[in-house]
Amino acid sequence: EVAKDKNGVDQVLLRNSRGASARVSLHGGQVLSWKTEKGEELLFTSTKAVFKPPKAVRGGIPICFPQFGARGNLEQHGFARNRIWKIDDNPPPLTRGEIKDKSCIDLLLKPSEDDLKIWPHSFEFRLKICLTADGNLTLISRIRNINCKPFSFSIAFHTYFSISDISEVRVEGLEILDYLDNLRDKQRFTEQGDALTFESEIDRVYLSSSDLVAVLDHERKRTFVIRKEGLPDVVVWNPWEKKSKSIVDLGDEDYKQMLCVDGAAIEKPITLKPGEEWTGRLELSILPSS
Ligand code: BG6
Which residues are noted in the entry as substrate-binding (predicted)? Predict the structure, then answer.
């Protein structure tokens, strides 16, 4: 189901037979909504979100590509999230792991002439977004080098989870990992043994995590499960009170209801030779918890 938003940009609505849904905008290839069969929204959107290109909407799952943050000469988090993607009518089949019983959309981003001026690497970025029969959300990204020289990129699926209260959640699966702390000059530290809880601003890249990370929300009795492949790193971000006030499209109190936990490849950029393709997978699901 494709419909235009008020700026004339196409949005795709995915539904499964039980009534779960996901909404994807061609602006950025960004997932804007993911709902359970009961209609509960699982992704956060800012109360001050601006739904107007070229800037990415504050919420959902913007894609950071080909650069993460300010780690390069490109605009913050790269340009992919600010571009208009196309629907890919004839996507090549996946080499493995076809998903059964799903509702999917295939998107494609190719660099424009202007993009090639700032990042001179021809690529095809295919993004398959699927809602499964169980209501899981799967994002499969395939990036191909169609140039005659190698290039390297970083990528992150900047997932804004909707949570009851930042003080009530914890993240499991990052214990004892090394991380780069953006709040301390990107220096490297080692996480101590316990699950991560939150009482102040956090902006970290956890390195080489296992492919399973969980966000537990005690109050909502819900656990988000993040399964990933090809995405070794995990970004954890919450701006907290002070930083929130400097972000124009984020409400002052919004930070309490959001936590970004991204599957990513940042510390070791991915290099593709001419003709080579990289695949990354992110699968989000929820479990009831006590
Ligand atoms: C995080 C970065 O992942 O994204 C932060 O590490 C940044 O430094 C945040 O503030 C949000 O970025 P943006 O560009 O969407 O405001």
Answer: 58, 76, 81
Q: Per-residue pLDDT for 13 more than 90?
A: yes
Q: What is the pLDDT of residue 56?
A: 97
Q: What is the CATH number of the domain that holds 82?
A: 2.70.98.10
pLDDT at 250: 98
77 lines ligand 1 (CB under 6 A): yes
Rounded Cα gap, residues 16 and 12, in angstroms: 13
Ligand 1 binding pocket mutation candidate from 237, 238, 267 (most atoms within 8 A of CB): 237
CA 127 / ligand 1 centre spacing (Å): 22
What's the domain range around 9? Answer: 2-288
How many structural domains does the chain have?
Answer: 1
Question: pLDDT tens digits for 127-165?
Answer: 999 999 999 999 999 999 999 999 999 999 999 999 999
Q: What is the pTM of this model?
A: 0.97
Element (DSSP H or E) covering residue 114: helix 113-118
- Is 58 annotated among the ligand-binding residues? yes
Token pair listed for 172: 């499991």
> Is the CB of 235 inside a 6 Å radius of any atom of ligand 1?
yes
289 Cα: distance to centroid of ligand 1 (angstroms): 30
**Is any ligand 1 atom within 6 A of the Cβ of residue 144?**
no
